[in-house]
Amino acid sequence: MKISLDANILLDLLLDQDNDSIEKLRKLLEERHLFSICYMVYGELVPFFTLNNRDINLFLSEMDISVEECSLAEYSYAGKK
Question: Which of 15, 50, 77, 80 is the most exposed place for a label (fewest CB within 10 A)?
C-alpha cells in the first residue's frame, strides 16, 4: 500500500516531538509500505535542512520516500480527512 505523508509526521520524526507519530511511522516502515510526499510537503520540509537540497534528498532517499505530484482530486480528498 502506498501512503502519502504530511509534513507534520516527518517533522515529528526530525524534531523528535511526538512519540506516537514516530511509533506509527516505524510500524508502517516495518510493514514495508511505500511512502510518498507531494511537492508542497517537500517545500515545507526544506527549511529544516541546509540551504542546499542534498540533505533533504538524502533523508527522503534513506527513508525510501518518493516525491510525487498529486491531482486536484487527491488534494480535495486529503482536505476532507
Answer: 80
The number of residues in the chain equals 81
C-alpha cell, 29 = 516502515
The answer to whether 38 and 69 are in contact (CB under 8 A) is yes
- 8 A C-beta contact, residue 67 and residue 38: yes
Sheet holding 34-38, edge to edge: 2-4, 34-38, 65-68
The whole-angstrom separation of Cα 22 and Cα 13 is 6
Residue 78's pLDDT band (cuts 50, 70, 90): low
Q: How many helices (H) and strands (E) does the chain have?
A: 5, 3
More confident residue, 61 or 81: 61
Among the residue ranges 21-25, 55-59, 61-65, the one predicted with the least confidence is: 21-25
